[in-house]
Design goal:
- The complex is a heterodimer.
- By secondary structure, chain A is mainly alpha-helical.
- Helix content of chain A is 74%, strand content 2%.
- Chain A has one domain (15-223).
- Chain A contains eleven helices and two strands, in the order ααααββααααααα.
- Chain A has a two-stranded antiparallel ribbon.
- In chain A, β1 and β2 (136-138) form a beta hairpin.
- In chain A, α2 (39-56) runs parallel beside α4 and α2 (39-56) packs across α9 (216-233).
- Chain A starts with a helix and ends in a 14-residue tail after the last helix.
- By secondary structure, chain B is an all-alpha fold.
- Chain B has one domain (46-350): ABC transporter involved in vitamin B12 uptake, BtuC.
- Chain B has 17 helices and four strands.
- In chain B, the strands form two sheets. Chain B has a two-stranded antiparallel sheet with strand order 1-4. Chain B has a two-stranded antiparallel sheet with strand order 2-3.
- In chain B, α4 (49-74) runs antiparallel to α12, α4 crosses α14 and α5 packs across α6.
- Classes of the chains: A mainly alpha, B mainly alpha.
- Chains A and B meet through α4, α9 and α11 of A and α7, α11, α13, α15 and α16 of B.
């Protein structure tokens, strides 16, 4: 039973990490319908920027954190301006390939600078965060992940629901020409959504780094893992991303704990195929009906 | 030679037959013939062992790239699983050769056929899925197949892989690179010829119709699901065939090369070469393979020149260059090298009165 609970807790925390990762992905898809393969690359850049600022430049943690977020935010702007904007209106494969190309570029660059080693952040979480419940112990990092995740979810919920930029974003996602006709600055919305997505990526990269230490390969692989999560939840649903992340996380840890550790890596993709076959728009995705 | 004429200045086609011709003038036909003769009678005898190895690799990868271009460039179905299909071909040929003892002549096409069947299985999601959903489904296929290569140890030998006996064709030993060159390039020529002609048939036209507008295609009476499956099957056949040749050429295979990376490399080949162009797929393959070699030579050179320690860290720059090439091509020349080639050619042709 203890084993079961430990796995449950692990699954939930990994799931939450996935959910956080998927959030940035859904952001971009929701506002510009771009499938972002560079997601893992953006996460890795955020995580390593934080490493450089906090460990190499010895800045205080809070300052490093804020600078990382600011840096990623501007990186998102730059990517949108220089790479995505020339492709507005081009075929889907070109946009997909472009993000794949960016991903390879980022990964190569990071590997060039940092190599394939594992780095870890200084231990800055207060030990009081560790949570005990009977024989079960939840490490402080997981609690911190949970808290950070909740804060961000709340912020995004409010942002999309009430802020004018959030409403613009939703309108562009819903019907681009109509939004344009009503005076929404569509290009600015795209730029902003990339910037915010890069910021969220950096966030999740940092959280991953706190949990496992950072390694270029590992962080960038997580960018691929995001696909089962978003497909399960529905590509354009933030709630779906959260739920999908948690389900996939639980599924992974339970398969790893009870069946075989090799299967653990593949289970999300098997689920992905099944979901695509029976319910392609996921749990909460918007169903686009198209009849011939 | 019937009428050895140059390109007319303008479009004077009057029949569908003229529209469908492969060689617009007899010069093209002549050039192809001369090129083939040079390729078979000249290239294998003057190239050094290393150059020959590169050329053979290009030949093998080009077959698979042509297959992928039939799927992505002509049918418009994005597949991120081509590397795994290549691997399926390699493994089926290897398993047939070692466990069943099938000769080379049968093992290679059989590898293609098995891969075509596997490809059809992964093509089934295309009934309901379009564009990015299909792309994700094939991505999952890639990862699942990769897992199968590593984990099904009784069949695939796990991470250690399989070593394959030397190929022999009707009693002729194909062990050397030079003889294998002929095998690869005869296959390459035949496969290219088939692909070019496939596009001119009703099947090829149906593929293009599906790419351009699948609803209109369905409205015109094309059973799109069947044709999509067919396209997946043909494309995977090409990949599997090339994979089987690769297995025989390399003499031993491990799961390592058939990763997602290889799939990305294939897509890079056809994007850089030009989507929807058979010569484009070949150009792209040459570009990527040569780029790979140049980058690894550069790495080696920097190591030898005495920049100690740099050798280890410069290898990732290969990835970076790769990504950069893809990004630059997409932004500045989305139609790829085939378009560059066309522009260069027509500027020569129209000289000095270009318009």
């Amino acid at each position: 039973m203890e084993f079961f609970f430990q796995i449950l807790i692990n699954g939930l925390s990994i799931g939450f990490l996935y959910a956080l990762t998927a959030l940035g992905f859904v952001m971009i898809f929701k506002s510009s319908s771009v499938l972002n393969f560079a997601h893992g690359g953006l996460m890795a850049i955020g995580a390593f920027l934080f490493l450089v600022l906090s460990v190499w430049a010895r800045l205080p943690i809070w300052l490093a954190f804020i600078l990382t977020l600011a840096g990623s935010f501007s990186l998102g702007f730059i990517i949108e301006r220089f790479f995505l904007r020339p492709l507005i209106g081009e075929a889907l494969i070109e946009v997909i390939m472009l993000t794949l190309g960016l991903f390879i570029m980022f990964r190569g660059l990071l590997l060039f600078i940092f190599g394939g080693d594992i780095y870890s952040y200084p231990d800055f979480l207060p030990p009081a965060l560790t949570f005990h419940w009977g024989p079960i112990e939840v490490a402080g990092v997981y609690v911190a992940t949970f808290i950070i995740g909740l804060i961000f979810l709340g912020l995004f919920g409010f942002f999309f629901k009430y802020s004018s930029q959030g409403i613009y974003m939703r309108s562009v996602a819903d019907n681009q020409p109509a939004a344009m006709a009503l005076g929404v600055h569509v290009r600015r919305v795209f730029a902003l959504s990339w910037a915010i997505a890069a910021l969220v990526c950096a966030m999740s990269g940092i959280v991953l780094g706190i949990i496992n230490g950072i390694n270029v390969h590992e962080v960038s692989d997580l960018g691929i893992k995001v696909f089962p999560v978003v497909i399960l939840g529905g590509l354009d649903s933030i709630g779906g991303a959260i739920l999908g992340g948690i389900i996939i996380g639980l599924l992974e840890t339970f398969t790893g704990g009870y069946i075989s550790s090799g299967l653990r890596e593949v289970v999300p993709y098997i689920v992905l195929i099944i979901i695509l076959l029976i319910k392609p728009y996921g749990l909460f995705g918007l169903v686009e009906i198209e009849r011939v | 030679m019937r009428n050895l004429q140059l390109h007319p200045c303008g479009n004077f086609r009057e029949t569908y037959r003229q529209e469908l011709t492969i060689f617009e003038t007899d010069f093209g036909r002549l050039a192809t013939l001369v090129g083939l003769i040079l390729l078979f009678a000249f290239v294998p005898f003057v190239s050094s062992a290393y150059i020959l190895y590169i050329i053979n690799t290009i030949g093998i990868f080009a077959i698979a790239a042509i297959g992928l271009n039939l799927l992505i460039g002509y049918t418009g179905q994005i597949s991120l699983g081509h590397g795994a299909f290549f691997g399926v071909g390699a493994y089926s040929a290897a398993i047939l050769a070692t466990k069943v003892g099938v000769p080379f002549v049968i093992a290679v096409p059989a590898g293609g056929v098995i891969t075509a069947l596997v490809g059809m299985v992964f093509g089934i999601p295309s009934v309901r899925l379009k564009h990015l959903y299909l792309c994700i489904a094939t991505l999952a296929g890639q990862i699942i197949l990769d897992y199968v290569f590593v984990q099904w140890e009784s069949l695939t030998g796990g991470a250690a892989g399989i070593s394959i006996p030397t190929a022999s064709l009707f009693g002729l030993d194909l062990g050397s690179d030079r003889i294998f060159f002929f095998v690869i390039f005869v296959c390459f020529a035949v496969m290219t010829w088939m692909a070019v002609n496939l596009i001119r048939t009703r099947y090829g036209r149906a593929f293009i119709a599906i790419r351009d507008n699948d609803q209109a295609a369905e409205g015109m009476g094309i059973p799109i699901f069947l044709y999509k499956l067919l396209s997946f099957a043909i494309s995977s056949f090409y990949a599997g065939f090339a994979g089987a040749l690769y297995a025989y050429y390399m003499m031993s295979i491990t799961p390592e090369p058939f990763s997602l990376w290889l799939s990305i490399e294939y897509i890079a080949m056809i994007i850089i070469g030009g989507l929807g162009s058979i010569p484009g797929a070949v150009f792209g393959t040459v570009f990527i393979v040569v780029l790979n070699e140049v980058l690894s030579i550069a790495t080696e050179f920097l190591m030898n020149v005495g920049v100690t320690g740099m050798g280890i860290t410069i290898a990732p720059l290969r990835e970076f260059t790769y990504g950069l090439a893809i990004v630059l091509f997409i932004i500045f020349e989305p139609k790829g090298l085939a378009e560059v080639w066309r522009i260069v050619r027509s500027s020569f042709r129209l000289w000095p009165f270009s318009y």
